Amino acid sequence: MKLRLALLVAALPLVAAPALAGPGPAVDARAYLIQNGVTGEVLLGANERDRVPIASITKLMTVLVTLERARLDELVTVGLDAASVGESSIHLRPGEQLTVRDLVKAALIQSANDAAYALASHVGRGSVERFVSLMNERAAKAGLRDTHFARPDGLDSEGHYSSARDVTRLARIAMKLPEVREVVRERTEQIAGNRTLRTWNDLLATFPGLIGVKTGHTSQAGWSEVAAASTAGVTVYATLLGGPSRGARNADLAELLTWGLARYRHVAVVPTSRIYGWAKAPYGRRALSLVAPRRIVRIVRVDRPLVERVVLPTAVSLPVTRGQRLGEVRVYVGKRLVASSPLVATRTIARPGALGRSGWYARRTADRIWGWVS
Questions:
Q1: Looking at residue 9, what is its pLDDT?
Q2: Which is catalytic among the residues 56, 88, 89, 341?
Q3: What is the torsional sign of CA 220, 40, 68, 187?
Q4: CA–CA separation, 368 and 362 (whole Å)
Q5: What is the pLDDT of residue 367?
Q6: How many whole angstroms separate alpha carbon 299 and alpha carbon 233?
Q7: Nearest-CA neighbor of 206 among 258, 165, 243?
Q8: Does domain 3-13+267-352 have CATH number 3.30.70.20?
Q9: pLDDT for position 2
Q10: Exposed, middle or buried: residue 327 (CB in 10 Å: 0-12, 13-18, 19+)?
């Protein structure tokens, strides 16, 4: 069976709409980044490796280190250092006991600095400095090359910085933990001490599909946030650092998330309605069409062409059974294989018996002779 190779560029359903083909949103911030939450593909960014203050986004690392080293039901005794931390807090009292679970919720939902310090002191066995060293060790392990921590709460401090690239990576790592995923999407929560936590993440109430993750604000860091949104099987992370105001940060992040999600579509990369090729059949039978046995849908970027590699026979030998595999189609984005499928016969063609084959050869011989003499 001889084979023919064909390379075909994906057709019209995969062409980006004109509205999606332009540049990304105009963003007023020191740095930003949009990234695919599954593949890590960077969709858009500016100054994403710049080292800048990140404020309370720091608490993602505080919680990550805590959850890797402590149980949720462990009791934490609040020390004087934690109770005396200022700015955003849940007003912890020295000697008070709360679970790790409640303090994690306070650190992530209400961005409580005293909760972050209480966790740091607990995991650091009484030493916040020891805990900060663990934070930096974890950052190095995660490949956060533009990050260094000086404290667990994120308040402005010399030598405390990260980048949009690293913050996004940190958020994606933290969101692998179910405890984090469940907490960062909550707008309010009740914890011990009759405390009601309220989120600083305004987008949870205004952006459809938002699943987290963490805001931050100080005088040096400006208004910052790493956000994640999911819709129709696509998850996109957008990080904005150093926005001029809370409202501007929210508006710009919403635009970044909308732009990122719009890069993707569900596309039937292998349809069943298409005939991928024809193979000649012997003994005067009609040519045999080849199709995919099942439809394959993938999420693909609208601004990236798909390329097909189709392998099919130029001719078949009989008999052929309907559904018999005779070829293959593979679909690529660049060098990455996104789908493959067999190509099968659309009908059964039986092999004629000895009498039928003899008759066909006789007719073909007669036709050739007639062609010579006419």
A1: 39
A2: 56
A3: positive
A4: 10
A5: 54
A6: 8
A7: 258
A8: no
A9: 42
A10: buried
According to the model, what pLDDT value does residue 231 have?
92
Active site residue 111: yes
**CB-facing half-sphere around the CA of 271: CA atoms within 13 A:** 11
Residue type, 89: S
- Which amino acid, residue 182? E
Token pair in block for residue 122: 């607990």
Extents of the domains making up the chain:
3-13+267-352, 29-243
Assigned CATH topology for domain 29-243? Beta-lactamase (3.40.710)
Q: Is 2 a catalytic residue?
A: no
CA distance 60 to 126: 20
Q: What is the pLDDT of residue 282?
A: 84
- Contact by Cβ (8 Å): 215, 201: yes
Whole-number CA gyration radius for the chain: 31
> Per-block average pLDDT, block size 10, for the chain (374 residues)?
40 41 84 96 96 98 98 96 88 96 98 98 97 98 98 97 98 98 97 96 97 97 98 95 98 97 94 94 88 95 90 90 95 92 94 61 56 58
Place of tokens 């490796």: 49
Contacts of 365 (CB under 8 A, 6+ apart): none
Per residue, the 3-state secondary structure of the chain, as one string, reads CCEEEEEEECCHHHCCCHHHCCCCCCCCCCEEEEEECCCCCEEEEECCCCCECCHHHHHHHHHHHHHHHCCCCCEEECCHHHHCCCCCCCCCCCCCEEEHHHHHHHHHHCCCHHHHHHHHHHHCCCCHHHHHHHHHHHHHHCCCCCCECCCCCCCCCCCCEECHHHHHHHHHHHCCCHHHHHHHCCCEEEECCCEEEECCCCHHHHCCCEEEEEEEEECCCEEEEEEEEEECCEEEEEEEEEECCHHHHHHHHHHHHHHHHCCEEEEEEECCCCCCEEEECCCCCCCEEEECCCCEEEEEECCCCCEEEEEEECECCCCECCCCEEEEEEEEECCEEEEEEEEEECCCECCCCHHHHHHHHHHHHHHHHHHHHC
Residue with tokens 């039937």: 268
* Residue of 89, 111, 163, 224 marked catalytic: 111
